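Next comes a concrete protein, fold included:
___
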Amino acid sequence: MGTDDAFAELGLASGASEREVKAAWRRLASQWHPDRNDSADAVARMQRINQAFEEIRRAGFCAAPEAPAAEADVTTPASATDPGCADDERDGDPAAYRDGDGDGDGTARQRRPIYRKVKLTLEEAAAGCIKVLRGKVTQTCRTCAGAGHQVLGGHCVRCGGSGAVPKRSFFGWPTGLVECEACLGGGIARQPCAACRSTGKAAPRSYQLKVRIPHGLRHGDLLHVDGRRLRPERLPADLEIRVELLDHAFFKLDDDGTLRCEIPVDGFAWIAGKQLQVPTLTGLQPLQLSRGRLAYCLKGQGFPVERRGARGDQWVTLVPVFPERLSTDQQILLDQLCATTSGAGGAADERLQAWHRGLRAWERGLQG
């Protein structure tokens, strides 16, 4: 592969600067690396991309060398994976971050996060809490940048730089060409990486973190945690935490922070105006019942209206429950109650007396 062909393979014009070449390599490598691309020609395309980069590097970059301080932040690409990408093995999510391939101009390194899910009860979400997160992070090998091998430069000794070797038949006769196993068809000399035993991955690293969850988070909210600020762990990746609110046995949450609770209550206790213990997000609270009233508002006992905001209200709806069949004692007591309001056992209510007088007059009018 000539230099012009190498530039064309990377989608660049001849004479592109070193920074442009490295940026093009990273872009194409992230697209065509077999670990990220399942297409049939991904392996061959990745080999051509690596070969093109090595050809341009050997020929010398056209632009002047960059400042030494910036060069310290640049890792010469040797595979399709940028150094330092991390996977959270506990969640099985291949989220990674880039930490080793700056553009050589002092720009901030990009850190792709580890994605986690945190399940919270309504009580935890309303008050805020501290959650312990445990998992494992697997980084790419910094020695080989995740390639599993190191490029030595120069032609491959086995294939002479062609990337192919003769295929021998059963009788030892050449029957065609096959890909060189030593250079994987790239034609460039390389050796297995001893640091990672050719896996391209460093040893998994366990972590355990305490993360403070602010009050007022809702289902689906995202919480970003900068891994560099976590002590003493100092994760090599940021955390993106997605909140999941668990269903509650008693409460339903409205979008405006209103908390609703439906409580069955003894019908006789409701009539008698007794006191009832009702659940809130902070525990049980006494509620004085009132005859004829089924809905009660508990101010400031609901869910935070917004993140880190004040709490909304809680509405309690009562469902009076009466026995389907009354016992003898209950029937006697009810008869006595009826007598107290009908005048048989004392003064009747004025509204009832007026109704009965009107009813008797209407009946006499019908008779005639």
Observations:
- The chain is about 25% helix and 25% strand.
- The helical segments are 3-9, 18-32, 42-59, 68-71, 122-127, 267-272, 328-342, 350-367.
- Confidence is low (pLDDT under 50) at residues 63-109.
